[in-house]
């Protein structure tokens, strides 16, 4: 009897959800996503992958090198933060993999990427019809452990995830290094009666690579709908860092954001509001206990109202909660946060850091 009911349920689900039922919840590395499954020796000519299918589970186009982290024959040093192996994309080269997904769902890719020589190296991430160009100019961590996230919403049940180097450098030994690729399906939270802000504690966000202690950089988005941090958009020029409680001190829950690039990176959200009504915006500011010391300041904006929040970081993972009232001027109000100053870690001047933002709450004032 129970079996019959179960079968019936499964049949109904299949009927109503169609092919989407075939895709399972995705969270973790893509197949050979850390590139540790090695090519056959016959598919390698020194470090160059020979043939379209030389890299297990991936398809390659153009000059793609399979490298091991550390000093390289040409005198360069490649840091590989996730595992031992990585790929380097030469001029106009790409690697791709086709995966099963649920059309209409939001996904975030998380990948370790860094430039090898030229300042202006760019990595394109393509999941048609979406495409993002990530400038790799800024090194956020000095030891090559930068990890990025990029979001997309598929329009069919299989998509091809492609990483492409659009650049043409004189030196063919240049081009971005990719050392791990993971994916996670996201569930965009909705505003509630108790909080108009969506994803207010930044709890829903991209996958953290295993053993990655650098957080995940959220690059400025062209499209809010596909933000890897649902509900939020990254504005201006540089990235904001998504941090987890496993490796950082976060004020509440499992995650928060670290404002790592001063005034060059802001995080924002658009709220539905009632014109001329007053709202109370509450949020917490702190430090991630990651060697980021000094006088910090977070600036918050809502409609025409602002609040500057000074915070003195001693790197102890402390935080404070503040609030201010704003008056909505229209049916949509943008709230924005950024750090007034730039900071680097005391133990590592090459690594950008900054104040932590968490637990944003917006409620109408009675
Ligand atoms: C993560 O780190 C632990 C401890 O250093 C190690 O045992 C484990 O193998 C690592 N996992 C991966 C996937 O690298
Ligand atoms: C906003 O709400 C918080 C929490 O209820 C309260 O502690 C705070 O005093 C309020 N702030 C303003 C400016 O109304």
Short account of what is shown:
The chain has one helix spanning 2-17; strands at residues 27-29, 44-45, 48-49, 59-61, 64-68, 70-71, 77-78, 85-89, 94-100, 106-114, 122-127, 130-135, 147-152, 158-164, 177-186, 216-218, 233-236, 240-244, 255-258, 265-272, 278-286, 294-302, 305-313, 319-327, 332-339, 343-345, 348-353, 356-364.
Structural topology:
Elements: H1 2-17, E1 27-29, E2 44-45, E3 48-49, E4 59-61, E5 64-68, E6 70-71, E7 77-78, E8 85-89, E9 94-100, E10 106-114, E11 122-127, E12 130-135, E13 147-152, E14 158-164, E15 177-186, E16 216-218, E17 233-236, E18 240-244, E19 255-258, E20 265-272, E21 278-286, E22 294-302, E23 305-313, E24 319-327, E25 332-339, E26 343-345, E27 348-353, E28 356-364
Antiparallel strand pairs: 1-15, 2-3, 4-9, 5-8, 6-7, 8-15, 9-14, 10-13, 10-15, 11-12, 11-14, 16-18, 17-20, 18-19, 19-28, 20-25, 21-24, 21-28, 22-23, 22-25, 26-27
Write structural notes for this entry.
Residues 1-22 form the signal peptide. It comes from Carpinus fangiana. Its main location: secreted. This protein is mostly beta strands and 366 residues long. It has 2 domains: 22-185, Galactose-binding domain-like (Jelly Rolls), CATH 2.60.120.260; 216-364, Sandwich (Jelly Rolls), CATH 2.60.120.260. The chain is built from 1 helix and 28 strands. The chain has one helix at residues 2-17, and strands spanning 27-29, 44-45, 48-49, 59-61, 64-68, 70-71, 77-78, 85-89, 94-100, 106-114, 122-127, 130-135, 147-152, 158-164, 177-186, 216-218, 233-236, 240-244, 255-258, 265-272, 278-286, 294-302, 305-313, 319-327, 332-339, 343-345, 348-353, 356-364. The strands form 7 sheets. Strands 1, 5, 8, 10, 13 and 15 form a 6-stranded antiparallel β-sheet that branches. It has a 6-stranded antiparallel β-sheet with strand order 16-18-19-28-21-24, with no helix packed on it. It has a 5-stranded antiparallel β-sheet with strand order 4-9-14-11-12, with no helix packed on it. Strand 6 (70-71) and strand 7 form a beta hairpin. The protein is globular, with a radius of gyration of 22 Å. The N and C termini lie far apart (54 Å). Mean pLDDT is 89; it is low at 1-22. One 2-acetamido-2-deoxy-beta-D-glucopyranose is lined by residues 280, 282, 323-325.
């Amino acid at each position: 009897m129970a079996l019959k009911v179960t079968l019936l349920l499964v049949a109904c689900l299949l009927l109503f959800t169609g092919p989407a039922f075939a895709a399972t919840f995705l969270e973790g590395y893509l197949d050979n996503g850390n590139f540790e499954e090695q090519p056959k020796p016959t598919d390698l000519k020194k470090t160059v992958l020979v043939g379209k299918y030389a890299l297990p589970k991936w398809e390659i186009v153009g000059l793609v090198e399979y490298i091991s982290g550390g000093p390289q024959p040409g005198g360069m040093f490649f840091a590989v933060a996730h595992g031992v192996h990585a790929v380097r994309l030469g001029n106009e080269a790409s690697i791709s993999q086709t995966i099963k997904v649920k059309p209409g769902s939001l996904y975030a890719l998380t990948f370790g990427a860094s430039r090898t020589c030229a300042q202006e190296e760019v990595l394109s991430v393509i999941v048609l019809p979406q495409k993002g160009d990530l400038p790799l100019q800024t090194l956020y961590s000095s030891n090559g452990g930068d990890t990025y996230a990029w979001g997309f919403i598929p329009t069919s049940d299989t998509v091809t995830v492609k990483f492409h180097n659009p650049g043409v450098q004189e030196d063919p030994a240049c081009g971005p290094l990719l050392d791990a690729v993971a994916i996670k399906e996201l569930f965009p939270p909705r505003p509630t009666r108790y909080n108009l802000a969506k994803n207010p504690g930044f709890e829903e966000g991209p996958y953290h690579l295993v053993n990655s202690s650098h957080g995940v950089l959220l690059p400025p988005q062209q499209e809010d709908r596909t933000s890897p941090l649902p509900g939020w958009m990254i504005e201006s020029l540089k990235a904001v860092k998504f941090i987890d409680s496993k490796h950082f001190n976060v004020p509440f829950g499992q995650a928060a954001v670290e404002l790592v690039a001063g005034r060059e990176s802001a995080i924002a959200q658009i709220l539905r509001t009632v014109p001329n009504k007053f709202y109370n915006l509450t949020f917490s500011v702190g430090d991630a206990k990651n060697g980021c010391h000094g006088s910090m300041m977070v600036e918050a904006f809502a409609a025409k109202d602002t609040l500057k929040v000074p915070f003195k970081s001693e790197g102890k993972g402390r935080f404070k909660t503040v609030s201010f009232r704003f008056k909505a001027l229209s049916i949509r109000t943008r709230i924005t946060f950024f750090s007034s100053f730039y900071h680097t870690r005391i133990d590592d001047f090459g690594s950008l850091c900054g104040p932590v933002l968490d637990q944003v709450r917006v409620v109408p004032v009675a």
